[in-house]
Amino acid sequence: MPKRTDISSIMIIGAGPIIIGQACEFDYSGAQACKALKEEGYRVILVNSNPATIMTDPDMADATYIEPITPEVVAKIIEKERPDALLPTMGGQTGLNTALALADLGVLDKFNVELIGAKREAIEMAEDRKLFREAMDRLGIENPKATIIAAPKKDNGKYDIAAGLAEAMDALEDIGLPAIIRPAFTLGGTGGGVAYNRDDYELICRSGLEASPMAQILVDESLLGWKEYEMEVVRDTADNAIIVCSIENVDPMGVHTGDSVTVAPALTLTDKEYQLMRTHSINVLREIGVETGGSNVQWAVNPVDGRMVVIEMNPRVSRSSALASKATGFPIAKIAAKLAVGYTLDELDNDITKVTPASFEPTIDYVVTKIPRFAFEKFPGAVPELTTAMKSVGEVMAIGRTFHESMQKALASMETGLSGFDEIDLPDMPTPAQIIEADGKADTLSRIFLGVDAAAQQMIDKTITRELARATPDRLRVIAQAMRFGFTDEEIKEINSFDPWFLARIREILEAEAGVRKEGLPVTEAGLRKLKMLGFTDARLAALTGRDEANVRRARRNLGVNAVFKRIDTCAAEFEAQTPYMYSTYESPMMGEVECEARPSDRKKVVILGGGPNRIGQGIEFDYCCCHACYSLTEQGYETIMINCNPETVSTDYDTSDRLYFEPLTFEHVMEILRVEQDNGTLHGVIVQFGGQTPLKLANALEAEGIPILGTTPDAIDLAEDRERFQDLVTRLGLKQPHNGIASTDAQALAIAEDIGFPLVIRPSYVLGGRAMEIVRDMDQLNRYISSAVVVSGDSPVLLDHYLSGATEIDVDALCDGTEVHVAGIMQHIEEAGVHSGDSACSLPPYSLKPEIIEELKVQTKALALALNVVGLMNIQFAVKDDEIFLIEVNPRASRTVPFVAKAVNSPIASIAARLMAGEKLSDFTLVDPSKTGRFAVKEAVLPFARFPGVDTILGPEMRSTGEVMGTDATFARAFLKAQMGAGTDLPSEGKVFMSVKNYDKKPKMVEAAQTLVEHGFEIIATRGTAKFLHENGVASTVVNKVYEGRPNIVDMMKNGEIALVLNTTEGTQAIDDSREIRKVALYDKIPYFTTAAASHAAAMAIKSRTEGEIEVCSLQDM
Question: Which CATH superfamily is domain 711-737+804-934 in?
């Protein structure tokens, strides 16, 4: 049936901030849905709290609300906008749960808003563990043996977690251990896990009941070691149903599917098993009632007897929908949005072929591999082991003609320094002198490493067995290392349950490696081509042969072994692909030559290098900039070419750029693309400044090859990163920096520290997101840092800066065309200097800086931009202490603040920057004065501490946030309140507030915060020193013991539910350790807590602002 004409406006609820378990895959889906519905002529109203995504750009929807995604706030937007329908299936669990809450509150009925995309009953049947099991029983599809635990409600409307836990302990007898605990209505396995003993079981059941908004958990029998599969299914109202993609987890059950290495299509199912799983998946959608969109059904198969059970299904576009869309070229979210407004699959065209309908089931003749990216190194104390609760922060995807090629390309895409199955150092192994090389046996590699004697061999066997048994981020490399040390596939499978088929393919790669080690680089075209067809990168071949990468590349080129490009066509070459969406491969010549489908055009081209996998310190803000470059330069008549390997983002959508290459961002892969693209047309240049550190590290090598780099030169970027060159510039401009030094040896570092004095900030050079940055307070801590955190050398020096305790940090974003400078935004950090800018809340415009300081910041920004000859974007970090301005660092490139500034001032600064880089001038554009918007915008960081139990939550100079939200309002206090709401911090309206502040913070601002809270009915509970300070300033408080002062203490009060808000600022190693338990309980019991004076004051003002009238909502288009 054609699209509906009885509705004209549709609201889409986004997914909110990027968090582990719900990342930018949902922004990709939501952006697709917005475009699809606007294309059909509907008015689109978007609600999302996340400023970092392209989805919340004003051009994406007709009315864009960057507001907290709470039922109360969304209800106000509904009342104002009066949409005819609400599409809740594009915003992950956040969108779904908010839509259900709005229905429960009667808001949808009151304003006559229809839920489309998924009916209420279907959502509940899929999400409610009990209803889902009953539905599967009706179909005769087996579920794992399980029991459902639901905590009863108390009279006050809260759930009785203790009663639920007691019921869970009773059920243990029936289920047995190990057991898998899955909370209902959550995302990314939040709160769940695998319990191997009673203590684990009790702990995980409690966290699961608390994480589930319905206080409901499913306790499954153990399926550890089973094989896991996903089916991406789309169904319409006419009962057309297609499997878009089958996905197989390379990891056995026990690792969350979001953390698992996965391949598409499924590679180890028999045809009979596949057909059964396909039929069951479609029947699941029919029974649940999903008839207007995409869903994901998860399955487990016992490798011993073939028993197949259904795990769960998502009645919405899921995390893997983005992967399946990129893997096949079939845009699931776009199609789902159109089905939601009445179309059927046979009425919609396939964008890739232009001749087949969307009801034509995609088929692929290549292999896609996804590998997740983790950030355990950011969370000292976190155990780097993978469970059923998701912990990855990003992922890469690679496409190859074979599993071998696809897997090795994916490893090279990771941005962790890998070039393939690189060797891994395992702890407790013998020394190199105790290891010998020997001939292998029939079931091992042909050449293996062994211990020189029985004792050395025992160390090898024990270490490798232990490491194989752990599911760590490096598990694939551990498998490869086990094979190098003589472990057979059977022995490996016995330990970690990996499928023998995958082990055999990895072994084939390693056997080829052994041949290269022994024989050297092949000297024939056929020999070298065979290695490239297995996915070996030039860098890996260089490592195996003792050459450098350039040498291998020359040898390969001389033999005529070059990559060719194939198009994603959705139909295994049955029809020609009209859309230039490509991947590289190596093929044997057929009838004289290898077919390349790149077909470069004769146009003037700009290549944009993306950011690779999302990770902490380099998130979707950079993807946002890349998208803007594509949109604005396409509009200016350039052919835009995107290179990226991240399947979660909008930049890798086939219609974002004119041409898309889904490839690793390595010098080899980028140069192969540029070689082909330069065969025709003109390469105007490459943009390396928008994708964070990933493309920047390629800039010098590309320039050396004669590739034109657009915008700020690589030399200027290097000058800003090189401490000695940069200091010369600062001195020349007469600017100030904190007293600092650069050390290339341990001894130098100790001597410089003596000169600078403590506290100081120390960090390695050339890092992202403050990696390994630390505030060091004494010589003991410095010695510990040098011995354990980094290796100090001439190649990797460390930077030491005097720590400006109590200073206010400032971020400035600017545009420059080489002659003119425009200050696009000045952001005042709410946390003091020393907290990484990515983790600090900030305000635009500044909320308490003196006008003369703001003017001087502009003067210094302009001087730096012109001295560095910036063309494009630039970010500068300053610190202000006692009215003096200190320069912290300069980034003459796009930074993570760009999208926030763009939304806060309503100006497309990334688009303008791209056009400046292509040669236009600032005078060609209408520029916005950021101080004259009439509103405050506050950014708040969202941190993933709940995913890493036991990690201290105190903020420091190393970035750990995964996402951000934005609150905007006429006053700073209201904007800060909205930012807290958006971040999920529920500021209390009554109760007891715990205050304990360091001596430096005992100032009028803290007195004002305390007085404000008392005036609004709160009772202050304080430690002795803070209570004395408050008493001297006329504020009453009750004294409580610190953690080490005896019982009952503050932690006891918090555990008893007596504390509603924690304001706790500390300094010094001992005080930070002493207050760690306070932060841990606050996190676990969801008590709002603030660890800096400025944020504590802002929180008090925000609580006060709530009494000044109802919250107002405003769209970007109305600002």
Answer: ATP-grasp fold, B domain (3.30.470.20)
